[in-house]
Amino acid sequence: MKGRVALVTGGSQGIGRAICEELNRLGATIIVNHYPSESDAAKAADTVKALEAAGGTAMAIQADVTQAAQVDKMIKDAIEAQGKIDILVNNAGTTRDTLIMTMDEKDWDTVLATNLKSMFLCSKAVVRSMMRQRYGRIVNMSSVSGIAGNPGQTNYSASKAGVIGFTKSLAREVAARNITVNAVAPGFIPTELTQDLPDELKQSSLGAIPLKRWGTPEEIAYAVAFLASDHAAYITGQVLSVDGGMVMG
């Protein structure tokens, strides 16, 4: 990926950071997007420092990816700084888990905006430049919850199912300009996003995984890197489940 420029939303921690590290290892210049808060800025700065220490080129850029004006500015600033964006990884996400009977409308809106609307905003902002350069790789983060559903996650599952429909539709729109759009659907990956789940739920999840273990952020990053590479040039509109066999068929 030497010479490629990759923007990873929510790239300062968890799966996002692992994706940044893998793309960096493969030679891409990394733009680490983070939410505009002091703690997230510190995490992004630490990520950039680690990428540079590993011999790569990286920069951090803040934006609330649910806000159109901030996204447009982020893409404009990123292209001005690096000359182009070849790879967009729509990774930013959140959860607000609860049964629908106790789910606030705000819980619904926050999850749909962060997990789904952000992909629309970021993809719309970057696709014009990708079409001009006749090259692009967009990788969207879905989830097994968007394929099979999960109790207490109607908002999260709906957002991640929406990611799949969005991915397939956008893939058809931009394929003629040598732009591929794919999704990765992780299974249970212990990160800061999942650390607050009840222990009994974490343990019971193992029973649904044929490989009998949880995945790692690095294993998700490997799948994203493949779909973002030229090795996957003939793959578009697909959903790659990385879940230890949790969801099949």
Defining traits:
8 helices, seven-stranded parallel sheet, Rossmann fold, alpha/beta, single chain, 249 residues
What would you note in describing this structure?
This protein has helices spanning about 15-25, 40-55, 70-80, 105-135, 145-150, 155-175, 200-205, 215-225, and strands at about 5-10, 30-35, 60, 85-90, 135-140, 180-185, 240. The protein has one domain (about 5-240): NAD(P)-binding Rossmann-like Domain (Rossmann fold, 3-Layer(aba) Sandwich), CATH 3.40.50. The longest helix has 29 residues, at about 105-135. With about 250 residues, the protein is an alpha/beta fold. It has a 7-stranded parallel beta sheet with strand order 3-2-1-4-5-6-7, with helices on both faces.
CATH superfamily: NAD(P)-binding Rossmann-like Domain
Tally of discrete structural domains = 1
How many separate helices?
Answer: 8
Radius of gyration: 17 Å
Q: Which CATH first-tier class would you pick? A: Alpha Beta
- Order of helices and strands, N to C? EHEHEHEHEHHEHHE
Q: State the secondary-structure class.
A: alpha/beta
Ends distance: 32 Å
Q: Architecture in CATH?
A: 3-Layer(aba) Sandwich
Unreliable stretches: none
Helix content range of the residues, please?
Answer: 40-55%
Total beta strand runs? 7
Strand order of the largest sheet: 3-2-1-4-5-6-7
